[in-house]
């Protein structure tokens, strides 16, 4: 069962005289529990004389099956690419580390030298990194160029464990992908130290990690000693003006940077202006820039446009410039931007008047200010329609897990002010039914509420049965005294209290 995929083309280009070969079981949805279940994969590995890649994406692997596959790998020192993403669906967390360790031991025994390791979309959390540590520290990963750990639920603890494993021996990574892991500041700072010692990175993608300016600043210092960076994606972290200033200082040293994605990073106008200066002072061959949904005013947006369109070849070079979701001004302003950016411009669809744009931006800024600094004064700026404005603001978030987290955080912020402010009490009562209505994943809503109440740790992706029962008891006992509109919504989701 051999196959030829796109990565084979890359390998063929790197080694013109050698045809890439390997085993690909991706997307088969196989449930591999026992050694017998793994036999088709084992047979394919044994029958492949030159196993340059093994792809098991989209199946689910138990410990006995992993050990059987690992045994087959012991005879293949030529293995270069291990693509093990989305490989543990439905498995208990305790099953994953020994399965990963077994696969690693097979490659270690073989004396393989991986260039690519992909373990994305395996929610193994910090304990999964423990299963990977031996492999990452071994000679198998001494020549590793691409490490993909997207959506693994690492949390701060996992980020630190990963950094420790990568620091054990020198690494020369070119690609590091670790989005949607809740690394936060401490996890980012630990990895920044690792990046400082590499100097070879060409692509870094760490979106949706809850990193604030402290972690961003540490990463920015590391970017400066990785001058070959071509792609940088920090989408949906809270870079803010301070983080933007730190990144701006690094930009002049990144002379090969082609793609920047800082969408949904709360840059605000001050952050955009700082970035504009950094972009203007650099000579990078920028092709793609995403600063969408950052609460940037029209003047600051124009500064960004001026900075990236100043060179004579900008229209030919730029392929995509996304500023949608910011205050761009009226039709005349947008026309100027489009004229300067050419076909690359991706602006908002709203071609309304300057006054309408300014009003909308003022409202968005007030909501953003409250969510960033939830004080009574900032809440009262929203007036009697506070719940509606917050609801409208949050609905711009597209990913369900991020949307639910944002609603829980906003609702808890308002609720915390209820004892001190009648306005907060009213807004809180209005927000609770909206929060439940917007939550498409009820189990995740429950999980986020438990995190907000500090009943479970932030990096945990589950909650113990006793806490679940406590929450149900709490909701069921409070149900009779809830406001009628809140009660009617909660009663539509019986799994929360029965």
Automatic annotation (TrEMBL):
Keywords: GTPase activation, Leucine-rich repeat, Repeat. One of its GO terms (molecular function) is small GTPase binding. GO terms for biological process: nucleocytoplasmic transport; signal transduction. InterPro entries: Leu-rich_rpt (IPR001611), LRR_dom_sf (IPR032675), RanGap (IPR027038), RanGAP1_C_sf (IPR036720). GO terms for cellular component: cytosol; nucleus; perinuclear region of cytoplasm. SUPFAM superfamilies: Ran-GTPase activating protein 1 (RanGAP1), C-terminal domain, RNI-like. It comes from the Eukaryota. Pfam families: LRR_6. This is Ran-GTPase activating protein 1 C-terminal domain-containing protein. It comes from Leptidea sinapis.
């Amino acid at each position: 069962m051999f196959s030829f995929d796109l990565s084979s083309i890359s390998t063929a280009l790197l080694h013109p005289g050698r045809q890439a070969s390997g085993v690909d079981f991706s997307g088969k949805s196989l449930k591999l529990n026992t050694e017998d279940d793994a036999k088709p994969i084992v047979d394919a590995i044994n029958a492949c004389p030159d196993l340059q890649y093994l792809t098991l994406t989209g199946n689910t692997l138990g410990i006995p099956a992993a050990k059987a596959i690992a045994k087959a790998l012991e005879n293949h020192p030529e293995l270069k690419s291990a693509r093990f993403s989305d490989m543990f669906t439905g498995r208990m967390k305790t099953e994953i580390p020994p399965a990963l360790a077994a696969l690693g031991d097979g490659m270690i025994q073989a004396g393989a030298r991986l260039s690519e390791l992909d373990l994305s979309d395996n929610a193994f959390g910090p304990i999964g990194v423990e299963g990977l540590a031996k492999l990452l520290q071994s000679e198998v990963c001494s020549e590793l160029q691409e490490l993909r750990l997207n959506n693994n639920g690492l949390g701060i603890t996992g980020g630190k464990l990963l950094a420790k494993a990568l620091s054990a021996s020198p690494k020369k990574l070119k690609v590091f992908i670790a989005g949607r892991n809740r690394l936060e500041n401490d996890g980012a700072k630990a990895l920044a130290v690792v990046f400082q010692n590499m100097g070879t990175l060409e692509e870094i993608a760490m979106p949706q990690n809850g990193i604030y300016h402290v972690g961003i600043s540490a990463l920015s210092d590391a970017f400066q000693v990785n001058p070959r960076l071509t792609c940088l994606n920090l989408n949906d972290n809270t870079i803010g003006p301070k983080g933007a200033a730190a990144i701006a200082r690094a930009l002049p040293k990144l002379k090969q940077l082609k793609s920047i994605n800082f969408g949904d990073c709360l840059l605000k106008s001050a952050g955009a202006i700082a970035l504009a200066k950094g972009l203007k002072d650099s000579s990078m061959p920028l092709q793609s820039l995403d600063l969408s949904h950052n609460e940037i005013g029209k003047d600051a947006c124009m500064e960004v446009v001026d900075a990236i369109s100043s060179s004579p070849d900008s229209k030919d070079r730029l392929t995509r410039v996304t500023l949608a979701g910011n205050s761009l001004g009226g039709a005349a302003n947008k026309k100027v931007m489009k004229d300067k950016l050419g076909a690359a411009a991706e602006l908002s669809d709203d071609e309304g008047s300057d006054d309408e744009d300014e009003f909308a931006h003022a409202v968005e800024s007030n909501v953003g200010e409250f969510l960033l600094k939830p004080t009574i004064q900032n809440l009262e700026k929203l007036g009697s329609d506070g719940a509606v404005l917050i609801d409208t603001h949050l609905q711009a978030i597209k990913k369900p897990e991020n949307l639910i987290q944002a609603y829980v955080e906003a609702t808890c912020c308002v609720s915390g002010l209820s004892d001190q402010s009648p306005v907060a009490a009213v807004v809180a009562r209005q927000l609770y039914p909206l929060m439940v209505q917007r939550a498409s994943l009820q189990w995740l809503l429950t999980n986020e509420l438990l995190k907000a109440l500090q009943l479970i740790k932030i990096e945990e992706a589950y909650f113990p049965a006793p806490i679940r029962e406590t929450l149900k008891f709490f909701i069921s006992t409070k149900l009779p005294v809830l406001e009628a509109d809140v009660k009617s919504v909660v009663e539509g989701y019986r799994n929360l209290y029965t």
